[in-house]
C-alpha cells in the first residue's frame, strides 16, 4: 500500500500531521485527516474495475467476440440491472408477482345471519356460529362490509332502545316496574329495618342482577324489565337519610299519594314527606290533597257534598270501629263536624295567613272518629287494623304523643282517605287525655276563631291564660296516664316506633 | 313542667313566652323581643311546638325579660303591667 507514503507527502505539503496515536488507532477525526484519508483511498482504488467493465466480464466458451462485445455493451448500458416493468417479456411478469390476490385461496365469508342480526336471539345458535363458522383466513374488511356491519350493530341497539322507549311510553309503565319491586319489599316485614344501610344493599343487589342480564342476549321484554329494574336506583340514596328534595322534584314524588309511594317501596319515607322534610314541597302537596267535591261550587254546595260523603262513610267507619272496640275493649266515637264549624275553619285568618288556598275542599276532619285507649301499647295493633281496612293513610302524626304542640295535646292523629275519596280524621289517645279534652275543647273553640290583630291586651292575656290552662290540664292528664300504666316516656317511645312500623306495613 | 310558664317555638325560629305570675307576654320575631306580642297563628297548633324542657323555658323567659327590661317583681303590679299602662 502507498497509504503511508501519501500521508507523509501530505505532511511535507504542510498538512497538519495527524497525531501518532490517532494514526495508529485508525481514528480520523479532523478535516485534515479526512482529506488525507480520501487521497489515500483514491490512490489505492485508482485502478479498480466494476463488474460491468469488459476486463471483469469473461467470454463464454462458445461465444464469438461479436457476441461478447454485444453482451458487454448491454451490461454497461444498464449497469445496475433495472427491469422495465411496463415492457413485455418474462421480467415484467416476475416484477408483478405481488399483484396476485390471496383471495383465490380463501372462501368468501357468508353475510350476517338474521339470527344474529335480529331478535329474538338464540344463544345456542349464536355460540354455534361463533365456533364453527370462523374462517381460518379472514377476508380483508372492505369499507362496504364495515359499514354494513356497523349499521347492523347500530340498528340492533336502536331496536333495543325503541323497545325500552315503547315500554316506558305506556301509561304507568315505570310505576308498574316499581310496583313489582315495592310489592316484593312490602312482603318482607321489617325489611328496611334490618340495617341503616339496607336500601344501599338493595340497590347493589339490583345492580348485580342487572349486570348479569346485560351480559347475555335479551328479549325485548327482558330489556324493558331491565330498564324498569334500573330506574328505582334513583330512589336509593342510602340508609335512613331523607330523600333528596331535588330527587323528589325530578321524579315527582311530591305529587304522589302515600299509597303510590308505598307501592314504590319507599313507604318508610312517606311520613317524612308530610312532616316537613321536603319543605315547600309539603305545602304544594297539602294544597293538592282535597276532598272529591266540586271546587267551583259555592260554599253551601261544597258543604252539602261533604255531608253526602260523610253519610256514605259513616257505616264504614262504624264497621271499622266495631272491629277495633271488640278486639281492644275500647269505646270509640264518631263525630261529624257541623257545617258552621267547617266554614269557620275554612275562613280562619290564622290558617289563611299561611295557606291562602285553604278552603272547604281541604278540610280533613268533616268526619272524625277517635279511640281512647287504656294503654298506648295497643296503638301499633290498632294501626295494623287500620292498614288492613278500606281507608288509606294520607298523613300520620304519632310523634305528637311525645312532642306535643303548643297546647300540650297528645294524640296519634291519622288523616285518612275513605274509599269515596273523602278526607277523614282518626285519633288514638290515652283515656286520660280524652277526658281532659272533653273539658277543655269547648273553651278552646271560644278563642281560636279570633283575629289576633283585633284583640286588646286584656283579650290577648285571656287567650294566653286559656292556653296555659289547657297546657297544664293536658300535662296533668299525661302524667296521670303514665302513673296509672306505669309506663315511661321511653316505653311510649317504643310504642310510637312500633306504630310507625305498623303504618309502613 | 312549670305551671306558670308557657313557652313555645315555631319551626321558623319565632318564640312565644308567657309567665302567668305577672302576665308577662312576649314574642321573639325577626331577631327582636316584642312585649305583649302574640302570634296570629297562636291557634294553629301545628306551627308551635311546646318547650317541655324547664331549663330551656326558663332561659328563654330570662332572655325576654332582660331584653324588654321587665324583671319579675314581687308585688301587686309587675313591670310588664307598668309598661303597658304608661
- The SS-based structural class of chain A is alpha+beta
Shape of chain B from CA axes?
Answer: globular
Count of helical regions of chain A: 22
Low-confidence stretches of chain B: 81-86
Poorly predicted runs of chain A are 1-16, 21-29, 83-108, 121-141, 178-192, 231-241, 267-281
**What is the mean predicted local confidence, pLDDT of chain B?**
83
In whole angstroms, the N-to-C terminal distance of chain A is 112 Å
Largest interface, chains and sizes = A-B, 32 and 27 residues
Tally of DSSP β-strands of chain A: 5
Q: What percent of the residues of chain B sit in helical stretches (DSSP H or I)? A: 25-40%
What is the 3D form of chain A? rod-shaped
Order of helices and strands of chain A: HHHHHHHHHHHHHHHHEHHEHEEEHHH
Q: Strand arrangement, largest sheet of chain B?
A: 4-3-2-1-5
Give Rg of chain A in angstroms: 49 Å
Strand order of the largest sheet of chain A: 1-2-5-4-3
- Report strand % of chain B: 25-35%
Task: Please summarize the sheet with the most strands of chain A.
Answer: 5 strands, mixed
Major beta sheet summary of chain B = 5 strands, antiparallel
Taking all Cα atoms into account, the compactness measure Rg of chain B is 12 Å
How many helices of chain B in DSSP terms? 2
H/E order of the elements of chain B?
EEEEEHH
What would you note in describing this structure?
The complex is a heterodimer of chains A (505) and B (86). Helices cover 54% and strands 6% of the residues of chain A. Chain A is built from 22 helices and five strands. Chain A has a five-stranded mixed β-sheet with strand order 1-2-5-4-3. In chain A, strand 4 and strand 5 form a beta hairpin. The longest helix of chain A has 30 residues. Chain A is rod-shaped. Chain A starts with a helix and ends with a helix. The relative contact order of chain A is 0.06. The N terminus of chain A is likely disordered. Chain B has 86 residues and is α+β, with helices and mostly antiparallel strands. Chain B contains two helices and five strands; from the N terminus they run E-E-E-E-E-H-H. In chain B, strands 4-3-2-1-5 form a five-stranded antiparallel β-sheet, covered by helices on one side. In chain B, a hairpin with a 4-residue loop joins strand 1 and strand 2. The C terminus of chain B is likely disordered.
Amino acid at each position: 500500500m502507498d497509504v503511508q507514503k501519501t500521508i507523509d507527502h501530505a505532511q511535507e505539503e504542510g498538512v497538519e500531521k495527524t497525531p501518532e496515536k490517532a494514526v495508529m488507532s485508525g481514528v480520523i477525526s479532523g478535516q485534515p485527516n479526512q482529506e488525507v484519508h480520501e487521497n489515500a483511498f483514491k490512490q489505492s482504488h485508482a485502478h479498480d474495475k466494476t463488474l460491468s467493465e469488459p476486463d471483469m466480464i469473461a467470454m463464454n466458451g462458445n461465444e464469438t467476440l461479436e457476441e461478447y462485445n454485444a453482451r458487454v455493451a448491454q451490461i454497461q448500458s444498464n449497469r445496475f440491472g433495472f427491469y422495465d416493468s411496463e415492457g413485455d417479456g418474462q421480467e415484467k411478469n416476475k416484477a408483478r408477482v405481488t399483484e396476485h390476490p390471496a383471495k383465490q385461496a380463501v372462501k368468501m365469508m357468508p353475510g350476517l345471519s338474521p339470527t344474529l342480526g335480529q331478535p329474538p336471539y338464540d344463544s345456542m345458535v349464536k355460540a354455534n356460529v361463533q365456533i364453527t363458522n370462523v374462517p381460518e383466513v379472514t377476508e380483508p374488511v372492505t369499507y362496504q362490509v364495515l359499514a354494513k356491519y356497523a349499521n347492523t350493530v347500530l340498528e340492533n341497539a336502536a331496536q333495543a332502545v325503541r323497545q325500552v322507549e315503547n315500554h316506558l311510553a305506556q301509561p304507568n309503565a315505570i310505576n308498574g316496574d316499581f310496583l313489582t319491586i315495592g310489592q316484593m319489599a312490602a312482603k318482607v316485614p321489617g325489611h328496611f329495618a334490618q340495617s341503616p344501610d339496607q336500601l344501599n344493599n338493595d340497590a347493589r343487589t339490583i345492580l348485580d342482577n342487572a349486570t348479569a342480564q346485560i351480559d347475555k342476549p335479551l328479549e325485548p321484554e327482558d330489556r324493558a324489565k331491565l330498564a324498569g329494574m334500573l330506574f328505582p336506583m334513583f330512589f336509593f340514596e342510602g340508609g335512613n337519610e331523607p330523600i333528596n328534595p331535588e330527587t323528589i322534584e325530578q321524579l315527582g314524588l311530591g305529587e304522589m299519594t302515600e299509597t303510590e309511594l308505598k307501592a314504590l317501596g319507599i313507604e318508610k319515607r312517606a311520613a317524612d314527606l308530610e312532616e316537613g322534610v321536603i319543605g315547600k314541597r309539603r305545602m304544594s302537596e297539602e294544597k293538592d290533597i282535597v276532598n272529591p267535591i266540586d271546587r267551583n261550587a259555592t260554599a253551601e254546595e261544597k258543604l252539602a257534598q261533604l255531608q253526602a260523603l260523610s253519610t256514605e262513610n259513616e257505616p264504614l267507619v262504624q264497621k271499622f270501629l266495631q272491629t277495633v272496640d271488640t278486639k281492644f275493649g275500647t269505646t270509640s266515637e264518631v263525630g261529624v263536624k257541623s257545617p258552621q264549624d267547617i266554614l269557620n275553619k275554612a275562613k280562619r285568618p290564622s290558617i289563611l295567613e299561611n295557606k291562602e288556598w285553604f278552603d272547604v275542599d281541604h278540610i280533613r276532619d268533616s268526619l272524625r272518629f277517635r279511640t281512647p285507649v287504656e294503654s298506648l301499647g295497643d296503638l301499633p295493633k290498632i294501626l295494623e287494623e287500620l292498614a288492613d281496612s278500606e281507608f288509606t293513610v294520607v298523613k300520620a302524626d304519632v310523634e305528637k304523643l311525645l312532642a306535643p304542640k303548643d297546647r300540650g295535646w297528645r294524640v296519634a292523629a291519622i288523616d285518612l282517605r275513605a274509599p269515596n275519596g273523602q278526607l277523614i280524621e282518626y285519633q288514638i289517645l290515652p283515656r286520660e287525655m280524652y277526658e281532659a279534652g272533653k273539658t277543655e275543647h269547648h273553651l278552646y273553640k271560644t278563642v281560636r276563631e279570633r283575629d289576633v290583630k283585633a284583640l286588646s291586651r286584656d283579650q290577648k292575656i285571656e287567650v294566653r291564660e286559656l292556653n296555659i290552662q289547657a297546657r297544664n290540664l293536658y300535662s296533668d292528664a299525661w302524667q296521670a296516664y303514665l302513673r296509672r300504666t306505669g309506663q315511661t316516656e321511653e316505653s311510649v317511645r317504643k310504642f310510637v316506633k312500633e306504630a310507625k312500623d305498623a303504618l309502613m306495613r | 313542667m312549670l305551671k306558670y310558664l308557657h313557652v313555645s317555638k315555631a319551626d321558623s325560629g319565632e318564640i312565644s313566652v308567657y309567665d302567668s305570675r305577672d302576665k308577662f307576654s312576649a314574642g321573639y320575631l325577626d331577631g327582636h323581643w316584642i312585649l305583649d306580642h302574640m302570634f296570629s297563628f297562636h291557634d294553629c297548633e301545628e306551627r308551635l311546638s311546646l318547650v317541655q324542657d324547664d331549663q330551656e323555658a326558663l332561659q328563654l323567659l330570662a332572655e325576654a325579660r332582660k331584653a324588654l327590661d321587665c324583671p319579675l317583681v314581687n308585688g301587686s303590679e309587675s313591670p310588664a303591667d307598668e309598661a303597658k299602662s304608661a
